[in-house]
Amino acid sequence: MTSPSKAKGNSFERRVADFLTNLYGEKFIRAPGSGAYVGGKNASRKQMLHEGQIRNFNGDIVPGQSFPRFNAECKSYKDFAWHQLFETNRVLEDWLGQLMAVADPGDLNMLFMKFNRKGEFVVTQQSAIPATVGVNHVVYNSATHGCWIIQEFNQFWQQHAATVKSLSA
Length: 169
What we know:
By secondary structure, this protein is an alpha+beta fold. It has helices at about 5-25, 50-55, 90-100, 155-169, and strands at about 30, 60, 70-75, 110-115, 120-125, 140, 145-150. It is about 35% helix and about 25% strand. The relative contact order is 0.14.
């Protein structure tokens, strides 16, 4: 039986996949095993798979066919230590590490985060999608993974839906 925390994460992954399906009119689905098949310690499995199979097991979301460069992780947690964004945030570093462990050069890497009673957020590399002037955001500088922009979920998509499509193609 699935643990409550795993079920919560799976539910958020399905919600993100459904949102992207509706936004782009192309089917996005939750990855079987949530990307663990070729992520982290299982990266060596990439050597036995063809490109299409690898793409289907990268990250937590299997993108639509016209999004070959889309790489995403989803995290749904009770809380988040926002104050630690001004120093090394170990939790965020771990999540970015998971995201980047399965990333290929040229991928658009995105982290979707949801926290109870706080909201949903999108995290992207600043080099891919810079912050929009006049739009609320937080910049997180990772010593390991570079500079990232954190923005509220709906606000992000209002500003960057077309950019995500073009950078993922």
